[in-house]
Amino acid sequence: MRAARTVHASRWARSARVTAVVSSVLSSGVLFGTVASLTPSKRGFDSSTYTTVQQATVRNLRPVMGVLLPTSVLANLAVFLTADRHNSSARRNALTGLLGPLSSLLLTARWELPMNSQVLAWHPDNPPADWTATRDRWEMVHLIRTATALIGLSGTLAAPSTQT
Q1: DSSP E strands, the chain
Q2: 11-35 pLDDT per residue, tens
Q3: For the chain, what is the domain count?
Q4: Is the pTM of this model over 0.85?
Q5: Burial (CB count <10 Å: 0-12, 13-18, 19+), residue 69
Q6: For residue 93, is pLDDT > 90?
Q7: What angle (nearest 5°) sits at the alpha carbon of residue 146, between those of residues 153 and 60?
Q8: Counting beta carbons within 10 angstroms of the beta carbon of residue 29, is it exposed (0 to 12), middle (13 to 18) or buried (19 or more)?
Q9: Distance CA 106, CA 110 (A)
Q10: Cα–Cα separations (whole angstroms), residue 30 to 95, 102, 112, 149
Q11: Using CA atoms, how far apart are residues 46 and 62, in angstroms rounded to an integer?
Q12: Domain range spanning residue 131?
């Protein structure tokens, strides 16, 4: 009976690691892709173009990231909970893997979602006069969120190689 329980736990841990890697790679990739490609372009947009592009980006990514980030947090939590307690490197990597997407999720909930809601309420032909301040804040939070996700990804990718 104990052997069957161990096999089941091992399969569960393996599934958690695969889910953590896939969801962390995808969510970090979406965040990094936005920083690397879209953010530099948006700096040159006029207010109407920026509003139209940002609204489309938010609408397109909200359902995707609404699944990927929480999945990454939960899967990395499972990896942390199943990490070898006698292997400090495994625990440290798993903790880094958990804290990265968790930080990204908290930044999203606290700052980005409210800003996204503001931008979605704007009319593209008449955004507020201070639209660049919202854009600049969004980009700063997004850059920090991307960095936390990438740091977490490094832990997620290292954790499987250091677990038993």
Answers
A1: none
A2: 888 999 999 999 999 999 999 999 9
A3: 1
A4: yes
A5: buried
A6: yes
A7: 105
A8: middle
A9: 6
A10: 22, 16, 15, 10
A11: 24
A12: 2-162
Q: At what angle do helices 131-158 and 113-121 cross, to 10 degrees?
A: 140
Question: Is residue 122 within 8 Å of residue 67, measured between CB atoms?
Answer: no
Please state, in angstroms and rounded to a whole number, the distance separating the CA atoms of residues 131 and 162: 47
Q: Both tokens of residue 164?
A: 């038993």
Question: Where do we find the tokens 């499972």?
Answer: 78
Long-range contacts of the stretch 85-92 (C-beta < 8 A, 24+): 87/162, 87/163, 87/164, 89/162, 90/159, 90/162, 90/163, 90/164, 92/155
| Cα–Cα distances in angstroms (integers) from residue 164 to residues 14, 37, 89, in the given order | 10, 39, 11
Question: How many C-beta neighbours within 10 Å does residue 113 have?
Answer: 14
Considering only CA atoms, which of 16, 23, 12, 13 is closest in space to residue 164? 13
**Position 161 confidence tier, pLDDT thresholds 50, 70, 90:** low
Sign of the dihedral defined by the CA atoms of residues 82, 64, 150, 99, in that order: negative
158: amino acid identity, one letter:
A
